[in-house]
């Protein structure tokens, strides 16, 4: 059988398993590249080559640094201080909740941020007699959009960057995502403080799944709430994060992004901000293995011509000389719809190599197309299962599925229009 057809069959099965999650996401990704190796599509040296990708190292290091911020209590302390100072007015509280969540989610775990702030927000709402649902939905929304500001803010950003690197194309810089992430965050913040808040349901706080919240905190690296916190270690973890971010922003030739991240992670352990085992526990291994496995699948798609087959089919359906604007708009919609029902990491991993192939087929720069795919995968507002932050607030906010649809669909459409307009300004198609 033609290697391209084999690759497409493996990709189709992986897509089905990603959507249904019949087996864990990371297992699906690693199984896909393993099968391609067994069938002779990929040479043995390339089957697990994704695990040695510099972007994997970057992500691993940043996971540890983020875990240190949660473990020392710094992330929670910042969030709680800002939210409590906002007062009890519904709009002021919403503004504070969203601003601090956007800022924290840009450099640390979205899920951990929501898990740490949610109990505080619920407590303030109960004291001020403000419906908890009016603040919890914006909390989840801010966590999702905040991750789009930096490369490590959300997995899809890392996925599209890695896909470009694998294809031998120029990649995105650490803060390059901010060109679209900051405008999107501002637009969504303003929308929620004006028109959007009128669409929010008015429900009092429901029962909070303490186990789910604690699990989310632990996954992000947060320590036991009852354990005493060291202000010295808080400061140290904050300075380490700041130093790493500054190094990445300066793009020093001798300190590439992954080196800055690993250096920061090492310092976190050496200074006692978290122990060695806690550093390992703070890494999201699902994302690491999913990313690495799908990088190898992307390599197979490129080498066998499977990606070109898909690209030729899609371009053929769009007519002769399709507009890159139309292409970007369509791929954004596909990515955005998929991510409402499956992992945003998985949807980005599936679509990134296809997006590159399609862009090259019509002769446009893949970067704006990949940026649109990555951002679309993070704009997961319309269902409770789209992202962990959405799921976390479901019970405490007493939300229904329709509540997410009512609030989330307009946000998805706003994001779509904003991206189609803004992205080509910073990343021209030609």
Which class best fits the helix and strand makeup? mainly alpha
Number of strands: 0
Beta-strand level of the residues, as a percent range?
under 5%
Largest sheet: none
Number of helices: 21
Ends distance: 37 Å
Principal-axis shape = globular
- How much helical structure, as a percent, in the residues? over 70%
What would you report as the Rg, rounded to the nearest angstrom?
21 Å
What order do the SSEs take from the amino end to the carboxyl end, as H and E? HHHHHHHHHHHHHHHHHHHHH
Q: Mean of the pLDDT scores?
A: 86
Q: What does this molecule look like?
A:
The chain has 430 residues and is mainly α. Helix content is 71%, strand content 0%. It has 21 helices and no strands. It has helices at 3-20, 25-38, 44-47, 54-71, 74-85, 90-105, 110-128, 133-146, 155-166, 178-193, 210-220, 231-250, 257-270, 276-282, 285-304, 306-317, 324-339, 344-361, 366-378, 388-394, 401-426. The longest helix is centred in the C-terminal third of the chain and has 26 residues, at 401-426. The chain is globular, with a radius of gyration of 21 Å. The two termini are 37 Å apart. The relative contact order is 0.17. It comes from Dialister hominis. GO terms for molecular function: transmembrane transporter activity. Keywords: Membrane, Repeat, Transmembrane, Transmembrane helix, Transport. This is Cation transporter. One of its GO terms (cellular component) is plasma membrane.
């Amino acid at each position: 059988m033609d290697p391209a057809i084999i690759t497409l069959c493996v990709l189709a099965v992986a897509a089905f398993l990603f959507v249904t999650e019949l087996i864990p996401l990371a297992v699906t990704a690693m199984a896909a590249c393993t099968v391609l190796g067994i069938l002779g599509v990929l040479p043995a040296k390339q089957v697990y080559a994704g695990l040695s990708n510099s972007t994997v190292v970057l992500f691993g290091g940043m996971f540890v640094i983020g875990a240190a911020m949660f473990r020392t209590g710094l992330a929670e302390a910042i969030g709680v201080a800002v939210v409590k100072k906002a007062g009890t007015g519904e709009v002021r509280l919403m503004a504070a909740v969203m601003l601090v969540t956007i800022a924290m989610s840009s450099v640390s775990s979205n899920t951990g941020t929501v898990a740490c702030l949610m109990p505080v927000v619920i407590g303030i709402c109960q004291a001020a007699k403000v419906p908890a649902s009016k603040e919890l939905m914006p909390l989840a929304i801010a966590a999702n959009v905040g991750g789009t500001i930096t490369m490590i803010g959300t997995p899809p950003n890392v996925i599209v960057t890695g896909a470009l690197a694998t294809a031998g194309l120029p990649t995105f810089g650490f803060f390059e995502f901010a060109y679209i992430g900051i405008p999107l965050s501002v637009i969504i913040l303003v929308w929620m403080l004006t028109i959007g808040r009128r669409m929010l349901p008015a429900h009092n706080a429901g029962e909070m799944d303490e186990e789910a919240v604690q699990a989310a905190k632990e996954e992000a690296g947060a320590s036991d709430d009852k354990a005493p916190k060291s202000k010295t270690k808080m400061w140290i973890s904050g300075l380490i994060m700041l130093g790493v971010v500054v190094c990445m922003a300066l793009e020093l030739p001798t300190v590439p992004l992954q080196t800055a991240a690993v250096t920061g992670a090492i310092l976190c352990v050496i200074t006692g901000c978290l122990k060695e085992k806690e550093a390992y526990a703070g890494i999201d291994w699902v994302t690491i293995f999913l990313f690495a496995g799908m990088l190898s699948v992307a390599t197979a798609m490129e080498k066998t011509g499977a990606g070109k087959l898909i690209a030729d089919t899609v371009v053929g359906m769009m007519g002769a000389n399709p507009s890159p604007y139309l292409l970007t708009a369509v791929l954004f919609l596909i990515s955005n719809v998929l991510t409402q029902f499956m992992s945003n990491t998985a949807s980005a991993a599936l679509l990134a190599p296809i997006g590159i192939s399609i862009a090259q087929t019509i002769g446009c720069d893949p970067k704006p197309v990949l940026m649109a795919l990555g951002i679309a995968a993070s704009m997961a507002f319309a269902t409770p299962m789209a992202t962990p932050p959405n799921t976390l607030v479901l019970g405490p906010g007493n939300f229904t599925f329709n509540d997410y649809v009512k609030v989330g669909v307009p946000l998805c459409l706003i994001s779509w229009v904003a991206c189609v307009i803004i992205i080509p300004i910073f990343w021209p198609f030609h």
